[in-house]
């Protein structure tokens, strides 16, 4: 009796590539639709009961929405006066710092407010109610700040109707007991100031970089140049980022106006040194993996050849982006209303009753459900993209006359994927979404454990988080290969996952070797797009609005995150293409005799040469071409199918 998984693949009767389709895992698509309907019901309820003005305009200490509720109709800005977020509504964010005459208070007493209730003047209040001015000579050092019912007038910038402090020295002093708030305020202020650059470079520039990179890889003879050029570019970009940040830190340190704190200078220098270190480490890694890089070049050539025959495949990242936008728009809309459904609770602060927003179990449950919808739908869109690419590449592989292929092949794959296999995508993405949801819950408990100071709970939860992260990565790998099996044989998720697992297990040497180096090339692609975008952003900010920012670090890193997400979408196209070609090659080898196989000789030589164990490349009798020696001896009645490559 054959061992489980030793039975090799058999071609179905009259198999001629992914031509005959059937619907798979339809039930799970219906469940996903029900999930979307439930999300819409929650959204409608939130729209009926929520008030997003609470989030956009802010709420003062009396629970009034700035610019909306009676008494503060003309006071549209939220100005914070305490560490806990207590604030008052003001007409405009202060344009200048004044420590002598003007204050912002919670006390609606005419004696403390020349311009009316809750205005910018409460001079005369005692030290318990107002920040103490005694002995103040430096605006960066004062006592009592942020701990009573009043605060100095401090220069701030309007960010979504909330006044965020602009002067780093005053901001640091104001939140001396809570430095996290200071850096978050500065970060948000910088993000708002550089918002046009962030959108333009984070999305626009990185998108153009992704298209250019993919188009260049399709050009014959350019792959090797792109590979080594990308590696050198990564090293140069790491070094350039390091040089720029370290130099900027030195400039800030030499600045006699003291516009930047010691912490900001230190952070800039640390990131600069990190850039130099990463450049050196990456250079050493490139030298060490020289042979593997040559292999990666060959792999990218195979993927580029497939994309070159089906040029419309390069549009897949755009299609996925459109799908994500169509989902994110209603999700964010519903999420804003859910977040505005909290109830007011009253607490006593410095002898003053202060109203704050709290969320009940029902509202929290709505938020968790929307988060689950986010996980499932985003993973579903990614899964559909993988299935469509797999369908197109499988058609490419199992077509003998490649001249019959074209962009129409991609659009046919899109139609087949959406008509037959959305259920399989929903099934696989549900598994990943459940794991992500568990990780989100663990992260929530981690935050609670950190706040309580329970070290044992923190370590235990950290271990759980790591385990589920590993589980997620394993399931994503299984899902990816299961989708390829679905594209090949139009089978459901469970059967496809099982067949993919055993197919890879029977050919673990070749799959492991080729997959490892192909992923290395994918990482190079991501780094080039991400680092080039960050470098361009840094130079642009420095040349234009550098004097308006607390630091370049926040906006540059934010752009880097966006660019990495965009680069990942383009990289996934090549990753899925190489994985599909490799699995098609092995399936082709198991299903057909040498004379009947679809793989061309170049691909056979490439996979067999680079997938063989090193000990079999020295002219031994077991040396390739003999795939049976690599695939194992347990082939049952189908062992002869493997033949000679």
UniProtKB/TrEMBL annotation:
Give the chief site where it resides: membrane
Q: Where in the cell is it found?
A: Cell membrane; Membrane
- Mind telling me which GO cellular component terms the entry cites? plasma membrane
Q: Where is this region: Disordered?
A: 613-645
Q: Name one Pfam family in it.
A: Choline_transpo
For this UniProt record, the keywords arranged alphabetically read as follows:
Glycoprotein, Membrane, Transmembrane, Transmembrane helix
| InterPro entries xrefs | Choline_transptr-like
Molecular function as annotated in GO: transmembrane transporter activity
Function comment: Choline transporter.
Tell me the protein's name. Choline transporter-like protein
- What is the scientific name of the source organism? Tribonema minus
| Taxon lineage | Eukaryota, Sar, Stramenopiles, Ochrophyta, PX clade
């Amino acid at each position: 009796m054959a061992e489980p998984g030793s039975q090799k693949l058999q071609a179905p009767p009259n198999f001629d590539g992914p031509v005959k389709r059937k619907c798979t895992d339809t039930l799970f698509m219906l469940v996903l639709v029900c999930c979307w309907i439930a999300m819409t019901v929650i959204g409608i309820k939130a729209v009926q009961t929520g008030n997003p003005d609470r989030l956009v305009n802010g709420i003062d200490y009396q629970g009034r929405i700035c610019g909306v509720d009676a008494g503060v109709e003309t006071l549209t800005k939220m100005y914070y006066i305490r560490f806990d977020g207590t604030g008052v509504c003001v007409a405009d964010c202060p344009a200048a710092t004044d420590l002598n005459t003007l204050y912002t208070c919670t006390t609606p007493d005419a004696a403390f407010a020349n311009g009316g209730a809750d205005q910018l003047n409460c001079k005369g209040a005692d030290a318990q109610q107002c920040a103490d001015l005694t002995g103040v000579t430096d605006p960066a050092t004062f006592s009592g700040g942020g701990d009573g019912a009043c605060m100095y007038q401090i220069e701030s910038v309007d960010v979504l109707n909330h006044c965020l402090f602009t002067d780093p020295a005053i901001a640091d002093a104001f939140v001396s007991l809570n430095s996290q708030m200071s850096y978050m305020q500065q970060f948000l202020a910088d993000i708002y100031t550089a918002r046009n650059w962030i959108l333009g470079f984070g999305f626009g520039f990185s998108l153009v970089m992704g298209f250019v990179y993919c188009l260049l890889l399709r050009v014959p003879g350019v792959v090797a140049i792109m590979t080594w050029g990308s590696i050198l570019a990564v090293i140069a970009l790491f070094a350039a980022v390091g040089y720029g940040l370290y130099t900027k830190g030195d400039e800030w340190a030499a600045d006699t106006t003291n516009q930047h704190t010691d912490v900001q200078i230190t952070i800039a220098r640390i990131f600069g040194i990190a850039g130099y270190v990463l450049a050196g480490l990456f250079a050493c890694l490139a030298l060490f993996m020289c042979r593997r890089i040559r292999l990666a070049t060959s792999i990218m050539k195979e993927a580029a050849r497939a994309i070159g025959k089906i040029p419309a495949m390069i549009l897949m990242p755009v299609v996925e982006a459109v799908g994500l936008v169509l989902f994110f728009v209603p999700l964010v809309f519903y999420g804003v209303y859910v977040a505005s459904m909290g109830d007011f609770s009253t607490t006593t602060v410095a002898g003053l009753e202060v109203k704050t927003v709290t969320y009940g179990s029902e509202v929290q449950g709505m938020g968790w459900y929307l988060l689950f919808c986010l996980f499932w739908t985003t993973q579903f869109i990614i899964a559909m993209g993988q299935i469509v690419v797999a369908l197109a590449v499988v058609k490419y592989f199992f077509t003998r006359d490649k001249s019959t292929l074209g962009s129409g092949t991609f659009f046919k794959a899109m139609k087949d994927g959406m008509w037959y296999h959305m259920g399989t995508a929903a099934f696989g993405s549900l598994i990943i979404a459940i794991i992500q949801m568990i990780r989100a819950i663990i992260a929530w408990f981690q935050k609670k454990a950190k706040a309580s100071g329970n070290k044992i709970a923190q370590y235990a939860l950290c271990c759980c988080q790591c385990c589920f992260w590993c589980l997620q990565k394993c399931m994503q790998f299984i899902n990816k290969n299961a989708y390829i099996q679905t594209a090949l044989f139009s089978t459901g998720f469970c059967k496809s996952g099982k067949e993919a697992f055993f197919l890879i297990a029977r050919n673990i040497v070749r799959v492991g070797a080729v997959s490892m180096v192909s992923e290395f090339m994918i990482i190079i692609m991501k780094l080039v797009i991400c680092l080039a975008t960050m470098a361009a952003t840094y130079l642009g900010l420095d040349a234009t609005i550098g004097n308006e920012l607390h630091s370049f670090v926040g906006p540059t890193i934010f752009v880097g995150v966006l660019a990495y997400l965009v680069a990942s979408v383009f990289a996934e196209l090549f990753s899925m293409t190489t994985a599909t070609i490799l699995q098609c090659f092995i399936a082709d080898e198991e299903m057909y005799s040498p004379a009947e196989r679809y793989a061309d000789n170049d691909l056979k030589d490439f996979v067999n040469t680079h997938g063989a164990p090193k000990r079999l490349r020295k002219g031994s009798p077991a040396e390739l071409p003999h795939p049976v020696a690599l695939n194992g001896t347990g082939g049952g009645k189908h062992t002869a199918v493997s033949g000679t490559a």
